[in-house]
Amino acid sequence: MILVTGATGKVGREVVDGLLMQGWYVRAVSRRPESAGLPSSVEVRPGSPEDVPAMTAALEGVESAFVVLVGDVEAQARGFAEAAAAAGQLKRLVLLSSSSVVHPVSHRIGDEHRAAEEILSQAVPNATMLRPGPFHSNSLWWAKSIRETGRARCLVGNQPGAPVDPADVASVGVAALTEDGHAGQAYELTGPELLTSGDQVRVLEQVLGRTIGFDVASIEEAIGVFSAISGDPVTAERNVRALHSPQVPWSQVSPDGSRLLGRPLRTYREWAAAHRGLFV
User: Fold this and answer.
1) Main-chain phi, psi angles of 152, to 5 degrees
2) CB neighbours of 92 closer than 8 A, spacing ≥ 6?
3) What is the pLDDT of residues 196-212, one digit of tens each?
4) In CATH, what class is 2-134+164-191+251-265?
5) SS3 at position 179
6) Where are the domains of the chain?
7) Residues 16-70: pLDDT tens digits?
8) Distance CA 30, CA 46 (A)
9) Is 3 helix (H, G, I), strand (E, B) or coil?
10) Helices (H), the chain
11) Neighbouring C-beta atoms of residue 73, cutoff 10 Å
């Protein structure tokens, strides 16, 4: 039995499907199991990683887990670690972390994921860390404005980066859960090519067959937007300045994903073509 948290998210759902294709029994944890929409063969339990009693029960009979933490990442890691200690059977853990943990500019996203890695490594020695950079699917942030106004506005800087397909990250996760040789490893996961946000918009233009206006917000404007979302202007400023830094770890293509999967990773153009309907 393999447990998956965040099983309805972009990566977690792909992990579930990948495990089912290999014939594994999967138990998923969802805050709203009645609307999870998972295959009938998946056992769905209510709860979330910080809910220690629910997670302890969900971990019963489980030896491997794919862990996705959303929201208060550090608190969720502590809750899951406590539940894992109480259950006492977990031998293999794969954490969806973030390449922000190796970012040279200190910021909250990196700090909390670094703490989560440390907490879960202590709870389950030789845990495997997946450290993706930005996802192809992050450009869905523009979908509504492209549909309604024909424009996209970049809030995270326009420096080159190598976004990765969530499905490829999930495939690495499935491999780490089901194959030997991944214990104690940390994998930096990027896509196969460097693109600025402007480059991504030009790809979308070609896929959609229409012109899309493109603007880059100032750092101050981006801080204002993320402050309004989080209600924490200090953290928003630290995060935005890190994202705008030319030192972002995903500014170089990592070979880890293609090496582990034995195939090229999906390009942004391939992802955009597959998700064209979300932008029209």
Assistant:
1) -130, 140
2) 63, 64, 65, 124, 127, 128, 177, 183
3) 999 999 999 999 999 99
4) alpha beta
5) coil
6) 2-134+164-191+251-265
7) 999 999 999 999 999 888 889 999 999 999 999 999 999 999 999 999 999 999 9
8) 5
9) strand
10) 12-21, 52-58, 73-87, 108-123, 143-149, 166-178, 197-208, 219-230, 233-243, 256-261, 268-274
11) 24
